[in-house]
Structures
1.
Amino acid sequence: MKIIRSIKEMQQTMKQLRSSGKTIGFVPTMGYLHEGHLKLMNEARKNNEIVVASIFVNPLQFGPNEDFESYPRDIERDEALAKQAGVDYIFYPDVKEMYPTELSTEVHVKKRVDVLCGKSRQGHFDGVATVLLKLFNIVMPDRAYFGLKDAQQVAVVDGLIKDYNIPVELVPVETVREEDGLAKSSRNVYLTEQERKEAPELYKSLQKAVEKITAGETDLEKIKSEIIDDITRKTSGKIDYVEIYSYPQLEPIAKPHGKMIIAIAVKFGKARLIDNVIFTV
């Protein structure tokens, strides 16, 4: 495995690999890798001859109340985990390499962002779209892998690729879960013992909602109320949102139709947990 820090070297290396007919799978990350990232890397390994991961804490996607400086970083640990997952190249630029001067253009995401977590993170997805546009042009992958735990991000990336005719296949990867159904997250370590016992109720409430809709329930407000009631009764968590939208458009729907997402965010003490289910009726 090789670590590359310069854009020029990364582009030259990728061009050589592409010209020799190699397929490239790409996993963009901000580092501090966990099992969700490793699953993406393993999926990329299955379907591509070359696997590239980027590790870059992108300042453009941090809001004024989010501390870019304190975001966890551990390149030695990340390097070891990526190597175990079969990554061939890590692209590890610093901020000056990625943004040597102030940008003369701006990427602004207009749709799929004013709901769910994006509602309270103004400008966040502009930063995500900007860095991905740069990374796709640097790495030039055939396929890019993103986890569905952050389904809103996947929806935004889907729109970016289609809008700008980027020649990359988006590969969404299912959420990695604990045995009891809790979505794996670095935030889970902040749960108390009691909160950890309660947290699986989030996914159970989503599963129950899907079962009711697929069985014929059409009142989506009733479904949302039942999810809220379940979580309120069975956990000490404070609900941030429970929403049902079309997917990946993330637009309101009156009745169950086509591909849909039910998404929730719940605050437990120090941890804010998100989860979702995507299904078709």
2.
Amino acid sequence: MARDTPRKGRPRNFSGDASQSTIQSLDRAFDVLETLAAAKGMTLSEIARALDQSPATVYRVLSTLEARGVVEAEAETQAWHVGATAFRLGSAFLRRSSVLERSQPAMRGLMETTGETSNLGIERNGDVLFVAQVETQESIRAFFPPGTISPMHASGIGKALLSRYDADQITAFLKRRALERFTDNTIVNSDALIEEMRRTRDRGYAFDDEEKATGMRCVAAPIINAWGTAIAGISVSGPTHRMSSDQIERIGHLVRDAAASVSQSIGAAAPA
């Protein structure tokens, strides 16, 4: 006889609902931890007031978490903070949450929604390195196999990543790299590129309008990690006769939303 397989790590023959299976004290501990994580340090009375709990109850939770290094108290100010163990536990999630793994569903969704090839790229030594692709089945399509290198100033993903640079980073980039021309549309003027970065930030997506290859367009948006750093870009690329000018804004919003979804899945804050 086949044995029942426990689902989602539950005990065999478990049939209780979620409200009956939670541990109240553990739930309260997470309330305390989430409250501390949103602040820059809080006293016992501040935490108790924020959670509408008695100081004695909150102190027992804090003492338990402190013993495991999940929170720590600052002796001078008596303020409580998230501790090193919480960071270590969170890092286990970050190790698991590979941007490549997390981007695959979004890339497939973009390809299916737009009918065009979706790509994932990262910055390497001032260029874009393409690391993954979900291809359309159309006979004429963009093709950037993993390992392909492209200059940042003439790439949708590259411009999406550049748009997150601050003024000093942009200045350093422009000093290091010549803006090579590939087509009549390639941006080769520093001031023009800086202005393009401003427009990209404002709309939330970058647009490569036949700037690397005549007849091909690309729309891209940056993927942001938990520290607000752009670590990759996701894009949709295709020929101009299918990615016409009146399609760009719609595709841009789809790509921007896909990038935001991946960003949140690896720990970034939700867009304001």
